[in-house]
Amino acid sequence: MEKIPLTAAGPSLSRLVWGTWRLLDQPEIREPEALAAHIDLCLHLGITSFDLADLYGGFGVEEAFGRG
Predict the structure, then answer these.
(1) Contacts from 44-50 at CB under 8 Å and sequence distance 24+?
(2) Which one is catalytic: 56, 57, 64, 65?
(3) Is the Cβ–Cβ distance between 36 and 3 less than 8 Å?
(4) pTM here?
(5) Residue 23: count of CB within 10 angstroms of its CB
(6) How do residues 7-60 score in pLDDT, each as one tens digit?
(7) In the chain, which end has fewer C-beta atoms inside a 10 angstrom radius, N or C?
(8) How many CB atoms are closer than 10 A to CB 41?
(9) Among this protein's residues, is 56 annotated catalytic?
(10) Taking the chain, what is the end-to-end CA distance rounded to the nearest angstrom?
């Protein structure tokens, strides 16, 4: 997948971004092992940019993503 540089010096981001706002609302990927597999799938597809905001999922998404 094509990368888009933010500046001439980088960093570069994938054209697509996986938004994690509703991650904890998706029971099929809520558990760490399933989430790790989903992250691996994103990376395999060339998605290397992830939207993680501290307030997503009642401030729980970053922790869940880290466990994954």
Answers:
(1) 45/1, 46/1, 46/14, 46/16, 47/1, 47/14, 47/16, 47/17, 47/18, 48/3, 48/13, 48/14, 49/13, 49/14, 49/16, 49/17, 49/18, 50/17, 50/18, 50/20
(2) 56
(3) no
(4) 0.85
(5) 22
(6) 999 899 999 999 999 999 999 998 999 999 999 999 999 999 999 999 999 999
(7) N
(8) 12
(9) yes
(10) 23
